[in-house]
Design goal:
heterodimer, A: about 260 residues, alpha+beta, Peroxisomal Thiolase, Chain A, domain 1, eight-stranded mixed β-sheet, 9 helices, about 35% helix, B: about 400 residues, alpha/beta, eleven-stranded mixed β-sheet, three-stranded mixed β-sheet, 16 strands, about 20% strand, globular
């Protein structure tokens, strides 16, 4: 449902896609599943992002692991050098496990807070590890907009293109909630999606416009499988990309939707 | 990508509320009088031995009844700051001109209302949140953006930016892009962060908190004083020939070095400052006042001083106002942008408070004393964890 919008139409080429969900550890696995295939039976339980040193891969918080995995996959699919792209990281809740740890430790023994977990608690931890791992000095940002987090991350990436960037990386992710916080901010499993968006013609193109209205129900195969994760509002787009559909409405906040038209060559 | 100058945006209203008081006049007066807002830490039941910049009377404030579901310290400060300096009238006028769906809302914070989550964990009953805090909307980062969106009725793009201590500087850059791309005709930007256990004990765990009031750029500096603050600015396209203060340029970069320590040569800081100058279409010598990040940690101040000395001439007046307000984290960007705007409008250039001497790394740009001068351009630096840097250039026409 939508009503005519006001304002600009933003355009981009989708050069590369990255994806991770439980049992669907790549975009190819997600596409195969969306086309009626089975999930990957022996998929790893969490990503092991190649951008980090081997010891850091194990220690990285799950938010960082999933964000870096999908971000790198999107860059590789696009044939882009990760060190050159400005980036936008979107997460509804950030690292819910670290928030649970911080709140529980502060209630119990505040002077025992782990310095590493504290600096990993910032919402831009994944963005920071990404720029460090990729050796990227370009701008990066980290945003949240509730259920509209993905749509606003996409808007920020699109306006960076409009402001002159050749290509922009967008990575969106949320993890499962733990502890008492899970009763307030329910979220299940690991879910990440990334796009490299660029200027230019050809390939899959996206036209975006902010309108009044409500988002699509999210009844595609990926949305049904991963609907319990807080980043699920991005899934109508990934289902549309997998199915080759030509339009989708994403949650853009109270009473608002981001209308995306997709053109596939 | 090569940077060309961007169209400046008019700043139609701005305000800040800090430990120095409520609204612009309270900030300007305390800066002029060199009166610090820092006090011995009296926050929480088991306070660390440090000094803080606490907003007086925040405990006695309350939200209007229709917004009560958003109640928490951070949203109370967001509301209090929103009422100052005729900001509601300015926002209403922008809505009147453009429509609510054409006014964007971009707010920065580092910890949003995590203080409410901390309080809930301290009062868990059989593992469940106490009833008065069982409100999901305040236990997530977008608590801030969601609250101010409902409080103002704005319907344009609305997001919470959380890049640690650069958050509410980056909001200016993101809002400028939204306006220049045609997604909005005006934007309310700002930032709010409030004291909470996470930041007090977290920065303490990293050994970055001083037991004395912060002494930026002093050779004996040994860490920061934490503070809380909130502020806003209303951005809109400039009318032809319009006078007043404006956002002229922004620069954003990443250190690509370390999560909690700056790049040793200040690579990212230099890139952010250079890009902000390029987008403003001015040279370093055109800048009359620079509000430094100047946290009073040994590493930040040495690196920032060297970066400034390498880029600017001796005439620049640069200082850190952290000795007045404390480091207000995700609100530092908006608070210190307000101080830069005060420098442009009032000719009041703050120096650096609490410090007795200047570190040998400081060039002649970094000043202890306040000065009075007529300046056309002022810059603000904000650098955050993750090596996230943002510099802004403001001007007066």
């Amino acid at each position: 449902m939508e009503s005519p919008g006001t304002g600009a139409v933003l355009v981009a080429r989708i050069e590369g896609i990255g994806f991770w969900a439980d049992g669907l550890p790549t975009w190819q696995a997600a596409r195969d599943f969306a086309a009626g295939g089975a999930p990957v039976a022996d998929a790893p339980r969490r990503p092991s992002p190649a951008l980090l040193a081997p010891n850091e891969r194990r220690r990285a918080p799950p938010t960082v692991a999933v964000a870096l995995d999908v971000a790198l996959a999107a860059c590789e699919a696009a044939g882009r050098d990760a060190s050159e792209l400005p980036s936008v990281f979107a997460s509804t809740h950030g690292d819910l496990a670290i928030t649970d740890y911080m709140a529980a430790t502060l209630a119990d023994d505040p002077r025992s807070i782990s310095p590493t977990r504290f600096h990993n608690s910032v919402h831009n931890a994944a963005a920071g590890y990404w720029t460090i791992g990729a050796g990227c000095t370009a701008a990066t940002t980290a945003i949240s907009a509730g259920t509209a987090s993905f749509a606003h991350g996409l808007l920020e990436a699109l306006v960076q293109l409009a402001a002159g960037a050749d290509a922009v990386l967008l990575a969106a992710y949320d993890i499962g909630a733990t502890g008492p916080l899970a009763t307030m901010t329910p979220s299940e499993g690991l879910l990440g999606g990334a796009l490299v968006l660029a200027r230019g013609k050809g390939g899959t193109r996206l036209r975006a416009r902010l309108v009044d209205g409500s988002p699509d129900a999210g009844d595609g195969p990926l949305a049904r499988r991963c609907g319990g994760n807080a980043m699920a509002p991005m899934l109508p787009l990934f289902d549309a990309l997998a199915a080759g559909s030509d339009a989708v409405l994403l949650d853009a906040g109270p009473g608002r939707a981001l209308r995306l038209e997709l053109v596939h060559d | 990508m090569s940077l060309s100058p961007i169209p400046a945006l008019a700043i139609r209203a701005y305000t800040a509320t800090t430990a120095l008081g409520r609204g612009r006049a309270a900030q300007a007066q305390a800066l002029e009088e060199r009166r610090s807002g820092l006090r011995r830490n009296d926050f929480g039941s088991d306070p660390l031995d440090t000094w803080i910049g606490r907003v007086d009377g925040l405990e006695d404030e309350s939200l209007p009844a229709q917004l009560a579901g958003w109640e928490c310290r951070n949203n109370r400060l967001a509301w209090l700051a929103l009422q100052q300096d005729r900001l509601p009238e300015a926002v209403a006028a922008a809505v009147q001109r453009h429509g609510a769906e054409r006014v964007a809302l971009v707010l920065g914070t580092s910890t949003s209302s995590i203080g409410a989550t901390e309080e809930a964990y301290a009062r868990l009953a059989d593992g469940a949140f106490p009833a008065d805090l069982a409100r999901p909307r305040v236990h997530t980062p977008h608590s801030l953006g969601g609250f101010v969106q409902e409080a103002t009725g704005l319907r344009g793009p609305c997001m919470t930016v959380a890049t640690a201590c650069s958050s509410s500087a980056k909001v200016f850059a993101q809002a400028a892009r939204l306006i220049h791309a045609g997604l909005a005709d005006a934007a309310l930007v700002g930032g709010i962060d409030t004291l909470c256990g996470s930041v007090l004990f977290g920065f303490n765990s990293l050994g970055l908190v001083s037991a004395r009031p912060a002494r930026p750029f002093d050779p004996g500096r040994d860490g920061l004083s934490l503070g809380e603050a909130g502020g806003y600015a209303l951005l809109e396209r400039c009318a032809d020939g319009e006078s007043g203060v404006r956002l002229c340029g922004y620069g954003e970069s990443s250190d690509a070095h370390h999560m909690s320590a700056p790049h040793p040569q200040g690579l990212g800081a230099r890139m952010a400052m250079a890009d902000a100058l390029a987008r403003a279409g001015i040279g370093a010598d055109d800048v009359g006042y620079l509000n430094l990040h100047g946290t009073a940690t040994p590493a930040n101040d040495a690196v920032e001083a060297q970066a400034v000395a390498s880029m600017f001439g001796d005439a620049l007046h640069a200082g850190s106002t952290k000795g007045w307000t404390g480091h207000t984290l995700g609100a530092a960007g908006i608070v210190e942008s307000v101080f830069a705007l005060i420098a442009l409008e009032d000719g009041l250039l703050p120096g650096t408070l609490n410090s007795q001497a200047l570190d040998p790394s400081c060039g002649p740009q970094i000043r202890l004393d306040n000065a009075r001068a007529d300046v056309r351009y002022a810059m603000n630096n904000s650098f955050g964890f993750g090596g996230n840097n943002c510099s802004l250039v403001f001007g007066r026409a």
